[in-house]
Amino acid sequence: MVNQYQALVVDKAAVASALKAAKEIGEYKRLQAVYLREALGLKVEAIAAATGFSVGYVKHIHSAFRHAGMGAIVSKGKGGRYHAHMTVSQEEAFIAPFVEAAKAGHVLEVSRIHRALEGKMGRKLRVQNTYNLLHRHGWRKIAPRPKHPQGDPVAQEAFKKTGRRSSRQRRTKPRP
Question: What is the pTM of this model?
Answer without folding.
Answer: 0.46
